[in-house]
Inverse folding.
């Protein structure tokens, strides 16, 4: 279920109201060969007692439609759903399927909200979830070769990916080459992993709760476990095949950070047959305790949703989406706007934990108008995620202790606090300037790190502007750091100055020589680089401009009254 507000002409209209309770409609898909017309009917049933399979797919362009026969009526559905039904249809016997666009009355807002609240249960009760990527455009040849080379690669990787290699994330490479795995054959794999399905926010729940998962592409089908084994193995090998690039790290993180968090016991999970995935699952259990915030904001960073409310609603089936009394933190209600949803969600979370305050991130003043300032944005991706190095409150913030006493009054959060310092001087935000409120904003936004990078290389550089803030603060309050240059450079890189001071110093000096003449002049006058002239080569090469741009995007440099920044 990805987009609940599709045009109504695309779906069957003659729906009878569902009974109260856990009722839905099951699609009975008539048998047929791949080229036969698609015929089906709808059967009202309790989803927790009926046997059925569920499909996971991308809705696609609503303007691209195909016709099927449903209940004897001609119904127009998206091309993607048409291809999905064609892929999973059995040639000789009917199949019982759950498909959101047909099984939900899309013109009934109440019914849609009910199904979104129960979506987790629907996918958890399915006998199997079929991930449908559609036609490969080559009569099934691309898909056939892709799945074959995935299996060949996995057989090779199994010899080298020991538990130690997996746990330590070490690189591996076969001693005797890759055999049948060639660049030419691997070209067929790229369309699989570049498919927009891997970017949908709803797929996280649809797969995370599944008992079994298969992936259908073209006229072929493969166990999804083999697909993810391939991704994990590929993510731990070097670039042995130049030109073969896909977002293996992105897809690997879907499992590491999201899919594994749905599971209590690996032996009951869809990946129970995978040694590789079970090792990675056990590793995830050794990390910090996962809260619903971790899931929501990690997903926000890597997935997409047309309706930003779905960054919450797509996870209502997650085990941690319920409070201690078993009630959902929020219920899907598409009559509420995003601002109302944010207030409701974080109001419900506040009595249990205030950890979400570490995720408040307003890049521009206009963002403050989109809802309560203490509620994190659900539709803005942060440059770093929760549990990062600079999280001010690692772990839970125990509001149950009593001294915090959080209370939500209307749209305001009231809470006790300790005052540790005061922000004194501020630089400007490393982001696009605020748009004119009288003008429509552009729909094509330049990536944040590109904007920040352009501000670093312009004249005067943003880094010079921040350095001026530092010097002004020093005149008024003095500074706490022994080496203000190294501390300043480390701040722009989001790192610690004692981790690799020599590499940081060399990279910053080179950056200043090119882009920051005033700072470079300071380094020269104070002989700052001479102290790093030890004859020892830097341990690492740090591309200062690019890394700093990634680190500071959407942020601003500030100093405090006690001389910190």
């Amino acid at each position: 279920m990805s987009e609940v507000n599709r045009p109504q002409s695309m779906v069957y209209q003659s729906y009878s109201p569902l009974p109260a309770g856990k009722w839905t409609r099951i699609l009975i898909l008539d048998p047929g060969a791949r080229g036969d017309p698609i015929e089906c009917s709808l059967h009202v049933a309790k989803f927790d007692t009926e046997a059925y399979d569920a499909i996971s797919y991308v809705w696609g362009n609503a303007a691209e439609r195909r016709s099927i026969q449903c209940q004897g009526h001609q119904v127009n559905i998206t091309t993607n759903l048409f291809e999905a039904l064609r892929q999973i249809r059995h040639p000789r016997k009917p199949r019982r399927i759950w498909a959101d666009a047909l099984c939900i009355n899309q013109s009934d807002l109440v019914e849609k909200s009910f199904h979104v609240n129960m979506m987790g249960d629907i996918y958890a009760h399915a006998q199997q979830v079929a991930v449908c990527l559609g036609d490969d455009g080559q009569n099934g040849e691309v898909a056939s070769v892709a799945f074959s080379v995935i299996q060949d690669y996995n057989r090779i990787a199994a010899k080298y990916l020991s538990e130690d290699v997996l746990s330590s994330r070490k690189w591996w490479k076969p001693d005797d080459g890759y055999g049948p795995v060639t660049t030419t054959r691997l070209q067929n794999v790229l369309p699989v992993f570049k498919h927009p399905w891997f970017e949908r926010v709803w797929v996280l729940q649809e797969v995370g709760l599944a008992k079994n998962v298969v992936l259908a592409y073209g006229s072929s089908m493969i166990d999804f476990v083999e697909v993810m084994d391939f991704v994990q193995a590929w993510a731990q090998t070097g670039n042995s095949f130049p030109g073969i690039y896909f977002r293996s790290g992105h897809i690997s993180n879907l499992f590491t950070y999201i899919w594994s968090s749905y599971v209590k016991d690996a032996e009951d999970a869809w990946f129970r047959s995978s040694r590789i995935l079970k090792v990675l699952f056990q590793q995830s259990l050794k990390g910090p305790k996962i809260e619903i915030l971790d899931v929501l904001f990690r997903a926000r960073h890597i997935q997409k949703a047309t309706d930003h409310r779905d960054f919450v609603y797509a996870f209502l089936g997650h085990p941690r989406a319920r409070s201690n009394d078993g009630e959902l933190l929020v219920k899907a209600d598409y009559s509420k706007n995003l601002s109302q949803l944010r207030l409701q969600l974080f109001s419900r979370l506040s009595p249990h934990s205030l950890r979400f305050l570490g995720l408040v991130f307003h890049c521009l003043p206009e963002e403050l108008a989109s809802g309560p300032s203490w509620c994190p944005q659900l539709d803005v991706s942060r440059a770093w995620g929760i549990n990062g190095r600079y999280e001010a409150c690692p772990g839970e913030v125990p509001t149950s202790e009593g001294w915090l006493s959080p209370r939500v009054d209307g749209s305001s959060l009231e809470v006790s606090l300790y005052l540790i310092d005061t922000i004194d001087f501020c630089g400007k935000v490393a982001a696009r300037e605020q748009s004119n409120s009288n003008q429509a904003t552009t729909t094509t936004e330049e990536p944040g790190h590109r904007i920040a990078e352009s501000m670093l290389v312009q004249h005067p550089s943003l880094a010079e502007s921040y350095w001026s803030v530092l010097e002004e603060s020093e005149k008024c309050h003095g500074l706490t750091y022994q080496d203000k240059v190294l501390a300043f450079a480390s701040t722009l890189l989001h790192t610690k100055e004692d981790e690799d001071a020599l590499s940081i110093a060399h990279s910053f000096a080179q950056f200043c020589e090119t882009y920051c003449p005033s700072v470079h002049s300071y380094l020269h006058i104070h002989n700052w680089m001479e102290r790093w002239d030890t004859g020892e080569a830097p341990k690492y090469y740090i591309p200062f401009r690019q890394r700093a741009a990634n680190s500071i995007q959407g942020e601003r440099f500030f100093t405090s009254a006690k001389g910190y920044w």
